[in-house]
Specification:
The chain is an alpha+beta fold. Helices cover 35% and strands 21% of the residues. Strand 3 and strand 4 form a beta hairpin. It comes from Lentinula boryana.
């Protein structure tokens, strides 16, 4: 069974205040599961990071991670999004991560440190979460005639 208090503790352990200030666990569809953050960060800031992290799903799906600087909100800095999955899972057809781990940090903070922390926590979480894979993965819809483009007949 997943315990949110335990997830929060793990997320809190990767923080390095004030520079690495927010750690978020979310579903690949962008739903917030748990987060830990510097108390000075607003819930709106956390929600912004959740939304932007969820939008990076395609890049995470292709590379296993995504990293980007937040434009227009310099106080938020940058985000590193890591797929939470076991290595053998990536070799399956229609692979998708169990969860996404997003770390929000100040611009200028060592991105290699962020990457290592994200990888370590994602690997640890994947061990527990992988037994729930069948319940966590969202099935992909099969193409139907209504969502396949076809040329419109000329009149």
């Amino acid at each position: 069974m997943l315990k949110l208090s335990t997830l929060h503790t793990y997320l809190n352990q990767v923080l390095d205040l004030p520079d690495l200030h927010t750690a978020i666990l979310l579903t690949p569809t962008g739903q917030l599961i748990s987060y830990a953050s510097d108390p000075s960060r607003s819930k709106e800031d956390v929600q912004s990071v959740v939304g932007l992290s969820g939008d990076s799903f395609l890049e995470v799906e292709e590379q296993g991670f995504a990293t980007f600087e937040i434009k227009g909100k310099p106080h938020l800095g940058s985000i590193y999004v890591q797929a939470v999955t076991e290595v053998q899972d990536e070799n399956q057809d229609n692979w998708q991560p169990l969860m996404l781990l997003a770390l929000n940090f100040a611009n200028g903070y060592d991105q290699e440190v962020v990457r290592l922390k994200a990888k370590a926590l994602a690997t640890h979480l994947a061990k527990s979460l992988s037994k729930y894979r069948d319940y966590l993965i969202v099935s992909r819809p099969l193409p139907t005639s209504s969502n396949i483009s076809s040329p419109t007949p000329v009149r």
